[in-house]
Amino acid sequence: MSYCVNCGVELDASEKKCPLCSTPVYNPREDAERKAAPYPLYFENDMKRLNRKFWGRIAALILLIPVLVTVICNVFISKTLSWSLYVAGACALVYVLAVFPFRMKKKKPYLYIVCDTAATLLYVLLIAALTDGFYWYFYLALPVIFCFYAYIAALVTITGNKKTTRLIKASLIITATGLLTVFIDLVTSLYVKAGYFLSWSLIVFGVCVIFSVICALFNRHKLWAEEFKKRLFI
Amino acid sequence: MAMFRVSAEFCEKIDPDLLEKALVRTIKRFPTMALRLRRGLFWYYLEKIDTFPKVIPDSIDPCAPIDFKKNNGYMFKVRYYENRIALEFFHVLTDGTGGVTFLLTLCAEYISEKYGVSVPRGGMILDTGDEPSKDETEDAFPKFARSVGESRAEKAAYRFRGTPVSDYPRVTTGLISASQLKAKAKEHGATVTEYLLARMTLAIAEISGKKKIKKPIYVCVPVNLRKFYPTNTLRNFSSFVNVGIDPILGEYSFDEAIREISNQLRYATSEKRLNARFSSNVHSEQNKLIRALPLPVKNFAMKIAYKYSGDRTSSTTLSNLGLVTLPEEMERFITRLDFMIGPLSKNPFVCACITYKDTLSFNVVRRIEEPDFERSFFTSLVKDGIRVKIESNSGRENTNQAEKD
What we know:
The structure holds two protein chains of two kinds.
Chain A: E1 2-3, E2 10-11, H1 30-33, H2 52-78, H3 84-99, H4 109-131, H5 134-160, H6 166-193, H7 200-220, H8 222-231
Chain B: E1 3-10, H1 16-29, E2 35-39, E3 44-48, E4 55-57, E5 76-81, E6 84-90, H2 96-115, H3 140-144, E7 170-177, H4 178-187, H5 192-207, E8 217-224, E9 238-245, H6 254-268, H7 271-286, H8 288-291, H9 295-309, E10 316-324, H10 328-331, E11 334-341, E12 349-356, E13 359-366, H11 372-383, E14 388-392, H12 395-404
């Protein structure tokens, strides 16, 4: 019989390393004591689960139903493809936003964001093309959509970082939100008034900056944070 | 899926053909085991199975969920490996005590089949010649429930986390000297369960020591209700209590932990408290409004209820089946008994133990990579002067390691 030199427990003769601490077992008389392992190597794995891919496929097929129905109605009743394109486009967008992630084995958030951006842009482009609105598309929709998804990507990066503390994360998220409003304000003012004017977003941004600085300061001064917690204790 | 596994080790290799014969004879005596789960409009219901179950070889993943369809509808498996007969079953069929009764009856049949020894029946070993009696198949919960229940709401317990395993759950068995353990527990004025619970909670507190534990460490302890009520039911008849320590209050010494736990356990396991606990379940079951809800709605509601009051209220489980004594005719052939339960959704490891002869076999089944709990727990016993022998299902890793070497 062998004992683990690290844990002090006696080990079964079939163990080659300690199951508790992974220390290898060295026993010069090992061969003399060899015994069948307590469990066979056979792995039954009875419950192979239906994977995400399967559900992704089912959802995709279900999404095809409204597309099919509207396209057929549209073609047979008004003899052209007009309003049904909105439905088809919307279904395609829903697919990319909600179903596509399920078809992947691993989670790839940045890939989803890139695809979501492209899909949203394409769908809005379709609406623009059908309503003859390329002006608003290029001057309003395109920059706002880009900016929104950049913001989402920033959120993913910030929240995914394991090293930063919660307060720093909060500070960065607040700053990013402030920046988003500034950018939206810029784009809309450019579109409406044909000039770079910042108005309402300055208030939002200012407040965001203050809160962001407060978070950063609290992160630096642990005592402040504790004092603050005590005062706000309910 | 809450799975249990009880197994018996013999002094000789198991003969699968004879085991199957013994199983066919045993299953006739246990109508509560030959049931299939069917889906009704309002409830799940159980239906008798007419075919006989097969015995199958054991695998490296004990307590794995059963695919009922592949298993001919049966919610249990009888497996064999080398010298061991194992019974794995779904909690719907019965609890630990019912499982041991089935296994021991099966072993008695096997022994008389193989060695021609007639084993005296009684206690947990049923006579397969007898007809199954009515009180063995009764649902004892509504029979003994009273009108006053108790709220099921409980504090959320500390949740142990780790890296999830990619394949099968890891089993670590500690074979502990029962006499030494009993003597140690007596030194502290406690029972063996209380002693083990104190060691377990302190082991969890020790591992998580660096992080600040903000929630109490509770261990779920199943309680066999047959001890309190006159029933012979072979179906489920157990309840549970959550006991433990609250590290927010400060660091516990071993004696403090044992005192705290034994007080809680003794308070919670009185007949009145236990009755109030299961009575509220019976009331919900008998509520006319709830009965009329379609099954999918019930399932959805149960899912939510489980999320908030299921294994969230405990950090882990310790199911102790206690000491099993066998007649001398069986003791000659059976060298060891084991009991284990499968890990639950929020409890990454669960513990179960059973004592036979002078060995308490303590099984930890975990679905995380880190063996920190086992290490901390078993070494604390060794430090206390109790002999512990460890074995595991890490055979695959051993062979992989050997191939690499």
